[in-house]
Design goal:
It catalyses: L-aspartate 4-semialdehyde + phosphate + NADP(+) = 4-phospho-L-aspartate + NADPH + H(+). Belongs to the aspartate-semialdehyde dehydrogenase family. The chain is about 40% helix and about 20% strand. It is an alpha/beta fold. The strands form two sheets. A seven-stranded parallel β-sheet has the order 3-2-1-4-5-7-6. Strands 9-8-10-13-12-11 form a six-stranded mixed β-sheet. α3 links the parallel β4 and β5. α5 packs across α9. The protein is globular and about 65 Å long. The N and C termini lie close together (about 10 Å). The structure holds L-homoserine. The site of L-homoserine has 7 residues, from loops.
């Protein structure tokens, strides 16, 4: 059985990966070795079979004994350990959820329901670094894969509604604390005039006691139209990833223009995106829906009705599931071939852990 080193299995993405691997029985087909950056020698996680004690995640010699390494430990770890392994001649498969190696010429961004051919070709050509994509990009491609595959996307603009989980575990907790602080300010006067409630809520959100250490601003009851660091052209890095990662995943020789504004909103772990897309041909909506629905097993076309939208096209409906609904599909009044779409996806599943889990299965096939 293939020896697989697993690093960063206790963090947010790592825990979701572990949960998915347990429920898909993935541990039965591999010989897993769990690594730690702080608790070497302690007992490993319960995976339903005997495993060695936790190994030191910075011990390059032990890591070199692995045929595959899966890391959810983050970019700092990757930047420190990966070069030592490669420079030391290790030719195993490195699978990573972090962004550090994504745009490297020696890596492939993995999203196998969309780019399995690119992955297989890369493998045959000697590529050994397979990196999970940015969550927004992966979720957009899971939803719109059918239109890309049909060569119908001339350009697209995506306006995002990104969950707290994308910023980290502490941020998810801070969002809940913010919700609590709002409730605390308003609850005692909820039976009174709404103007007083509104004033109390705004006062609490602007007050010094409102918990904003992680987001830097109120998110509950508000939003933050900025994600990640600035680029030189006025985009944020998150917005830049949209165009660069999408075209790398699809291995497009001529890049498809993609741009938009990335916005943090107060959901826990589902990212949503409102997309304006220019089709190459002025297709009928029924044909657009057929192409979208046939792309993979997880995308689900939601009819453009209020009832279906409220039932199936919200973060609440999607959270914790692998379903990627896409709805609000209609022709826009902006010219031939311009359509709108809205999609929602779990940022920790298809946005992070699932492409990595599936790549592991491909690597040990
Ligand atoms: N960068 C994303 C976000 C999450 O901030 O929502 C990771 O892909």
């Amino acid at each position: 059985m293939v020896k697989v080193g697993i690093v960063g299995w206790r963090g947010m993405v790592g825990s979701v990966l572990m949960e998915r691997m347990r429920s898909e029985n993935d541990f039965q087909g591999i010989d897993p070795v769990f690594f730690t950056t702080s608790q070497a020698g302690q007992k490993g996680p319960d995976i339903g079979k005997e495993i060695p004690v936790l190994q030191d995640g910075f011990d390059v010699e032990i890591l070199k004994g692995m045929e595959v390494i899966v890391s959810c430990q983050g970019s700092d770890y990757t930047k420190k350990v990966h070069p030592q392994l490669r420079e030391g001649g290790w030719n195993g498969v490195w699978i990573d959820a972090a962004s550090a190696l994504r745009m490297s010429e020696k890596s492939i961004i993995v999203l196998d329901p969309v780019n399995r051919e690119v992955i297989d070709k890369g493998f045959d050509a000697g590529i050994r670094d397979f990196i999970g994509g940015n969550c927004t990009v992966s979720l957009m491609l899971m939803a719109l894969g059918g239109l890309f595959e049909a060569g119908q996307v001339e350009w697209l603009s995506t306006m995002t509604y990104q969950a707290a989980s994308g910023a980290g575990a502490k941020n998810m907790k801070e969002l809940v604390s913010q919700m609590g602080a709002i409730n605390e300010a308003a609850q005692p006067i909820l039976d009174g005039p709404v103007a007083a409630v509104d004033t109390a809520v705004a006062g609490a959100m602007r007050g010094d006691a409102f918990p904003t250490d992680n987001f830097g601003a109120p998110l509950a009851g508000s939003l933050i139209p900025w994600i990640d660091s600035p680029m030189e052209n006025g985009q944020t890095r998150e917005e830049w990833k949209g165009v660069s990662e999408t075209n790398k995943i699809l291995e497009n020789e001529t890049p498809i223009p993609i741009d938009g504004i990335c916005v943090r909103i107060g959901t826990m772990r589902c990212h949503s995106q409102a997309i304006t897309l220019k089709l190459k041909d002025d297709l009928e909506i029924a044909e657009v829906e057929r192409l979208l629905a046939s792309a993979n097993d997880w995308v689900k076309v939601v009819p453009n009705t209020k009832e279906a939208t409220l039932k199936d096209l919200t973060p609440t409906a999607v959270t914790g599931t692998l379903t990627v609904p896409v709805g609000r599909i209609r022709k826009m009044n902006l010219g031939p071939g311009v359509i709108s779409l809205f999609t929602v996806g779990d940022q920790l599943l298809w946005g992070a852990a699932e492409p990595v889990r599936r790549m592991l299965n491909i690597a040990v096939e």
